[in-house]
Amino acid sequence: MGTHCLSTVGYEEIAPGEDYPTRGHADGYFFDVNKGRVLDEYQLQYIVEGDGVFRSASQKTTRLHSGDIFLLYPGEWHTYHPEKNGWKCYWIGFKGRNIDDRVKAGFLSPKKVIYHIGYDSEMIHLFNHALEISEREPVYFQQTLAGIVNCLIGMMYSLQRTEALKGCSDDQDLVNRARELIRNNLESTLSIQEIAEKLNISYSKFRRVFKDLTGFSPAYYQMDLKLQRARDLLSTTDLSIKDIAYQLDFTSPDYFSTKFKCKNGMKPSEFRRRML
Q1: What CATH superfamily is the domain 170-275?
Q2: Distance between CA 49 and CA 85 in Å, rounded?
Q3: Tens of pLDDT along 75-111?
Q4: Domain layout of the chain by residue ranges
């Protein structure tokens, strides 16, 4: 199978009302949005926040939304820009026989440029990983980046199909964001109500949507992850049970012990002894 050769990778945050493209827009890629441009490579662009507009030789003017990823084709005229509220966007540019073969086989086409995949933390992780590798340029970094490009294209197609089948992509985006916030704040005082506020949704609606799509409440999900983290801390650290309880923001060591026993059938102290 042919490989990809990476030419550019980046991330930009365009503030509300800011000119676009910015003058810092990847060297050699600056363009006039009114005139558009033609590239000699493919580019994947992933909008993680914000809205915009896209138009190409094969696609009429189309709105872009948060969670959209679009593929630019070599030799294909196009233009795009964020709306007045700006956006946050990753991009990666590449060429190679692998992607050429997919286009020739009809797997990808300039007539279908925009895919809605929603907010996906794994996709974001891959873009960030590509950014980090391109900055370090370790041995065989082009081969590693080629693998990331393959993965991004595969995920783009798979996630878009999944979103289409779900038929409730906005709610799924909300739940995905909520899950990530909960996972990243297990050892903080961030409450479920505060998470709802961060997502600009009422607590009652947030709880209903989360439960409809996962089968359990956000509070239950948060507690389950805290107790999983507690198991890890009990088995891999020397932290006292009291310290673990407060580190995971339980109201007291006794409350932590009660919840842990309900979940695991034994007190934290018993669990730790079995792990020794």
Answers
A1: Homeodomain-like (1.10.10.60)
A2: 10
A3: 999 999 999 999 999 999 999 888 898 888 888 899 9
A4: 4-165, 170-275
